[in-house]
Amino acid sequence: MSKTYYLSTxxxxxxxxxxxxxxxxxxxxxxxxxxxxxxxxxxxxxESGAKFPFPIEGSIVYFVGPTPPKPNEPIGxxxxxxxxxxxxxxxTMLKFGSKGMIGKGKRNADVINxxxxxxxxxxxxTGGAGALLGKRIKSAEIIAxxxxxxxxxxxxxxxxxxxxxxxxxxxxDYYQMGREQYEVKD
Amino acid sequence: xREIEFDEVVKAVRNIIVHCGTDLPQDAYDxxxxxxxxxxxxxxxxxxxxxxxxxxxxxxxxxxxxxxxxLAVFFVKVGDEVKVKGGLLRDAINEGTKQGYTDAYxxxxxxxxxxxxxxxxxxxxxxxxxxxxxxxxxxxxxIEYAAKGGGSENVSRATVxxxxxxxxxxxxxxxxxxxxxxxNPCPPITVGVGIGxxxxxxxxxxxxxLFRELGxxxxxxxxxxxxxxxxxxxxxxGIGAMGMGGIKTALGVHIEANPCHIASLPVSVNVQCHSSxxxxxxx
Lengths: 186, 283
What we know:
The complex is a heterodimer. By secondary structure, chain A is α/β, with parallel strands linked by helices. Helix content of chain A is 26%, strand content 26%. Chain A has a single domain (4-181), classed as Fe-S hydro-lyase, tartrate dehydratase beta-type, catalytic domain (fumarase). Chain A has 6 helices and 7 strands; from the N terminus they run E-H-E-H-E-H-E-H-E-H-E-E-H. In chain A, strand 2, helix 2 and strand 3 (60-62) form a beta-alpha-beta unit. In chain A, 51% of the residues are buried. Chain B is globular, with a radius of gyration of 19 Å. In chain B, the strands form 3 sheets. Chain B has a 4-stranded mixed β-sheet. In chain B, helix 6 packs parallel to helix 8 (221-235). Chain B has helices spanning 6-22, 26-38, 42-61, 89-103, 150-153, 166-181, 199-209, 221-235, and strands spanning 2-5, 71-79, 82-85, 130-136, 141-148, 157-161, 189-197, 250-260, 265-272, 278-282. Chain B has 8 helices and 10 strands. Classes of the chains: A alpha/beta, B alpha/beta. Chains A and B meet through helix 5 and helix 6 of A and helix 3 of B.
């Protein structure tokens, strides 16, 4: 039976280890955005030991490229992008202390194993609910790579941001669990 | 020869882009509402509830439905007795696209294929639009438009089957593509299937099939029957809304079939996410 949690960032291993695939989580606090191009650069920074643009310990990274904000609004529409494109980078992010990712769609075995090894969580947010999710973001500030436009790294303050645990720290995959329950085999 | 002012086309295109960015078409809204009523999985129902709430917020507050505001895709039928005065029709559609994406604060998602550069002075403003032209009789310009997102485009596939594969082979291929896609294209999806023609004709037909109204019936009874069968088979996959598991993976399956070479059976599958932003105008 799925449970509901209200968690504040940064997350600790204690926070992540209580979660199970299928649980609903409302996240509040600071999260950071990064997509394909930014991940490539961030992972290079970690591997070379260079200065990182945000505190990685306990951080949550949101895979999103928002629409431009209207005047006097912090951000435009901001739903998740498809996560597999970050599969080659996510294990390194988790290894250096990040505790979670928000996206949509399947992750590969390397990411699922890294979640187990480093107490990380892969959260799914509802794709195509950009207007609804954008309203849960209270402030947004570009902190790295402004030249990447929608792909720049942003620091977001979120309030009760709704996500579902897809991959937990025990190797479970909610996409597989949900599908098995409803698949009709001939 | 009827003449239409260049600026009239620009304005019309700009307006449909602005409208589609924030207002989910009624056919998609109705199909999602019906799916929510019928879905057995509680988690998928909650996802569908969020999707419908998102559509309500987007419409009332004029916020983009999704941050992926797509590439602008057009199917344009130009009458042989109409002429655009003061410029080229293609330029007018591109200018309307630029204005629509800018005025409605939509994301410019176009970039160079390898450098991935997205530069305002170069190909920003989401240009160039993807435009498929056809010439028909009459003095009207008929424009079908869709904002096509990347997540659903990425799972789309095309192949050429041997003719002996037949309907069963096509059905198997379509089911495999959707099974492999799983949660990635933001289900519940619309599945566009192009059958026959040549390799590229099948692909373009599968794209155009997505522009058809959800809930409409294929006028060809043979294809209508195949669509219904594909719908049942796809929904047996159990993928559900956003892949959370459930009985509603597809909102609709739309087939466009064409005559093909005696040696070939081309088939293309183009997928549209649940945020099916499309419209149709005649100028």
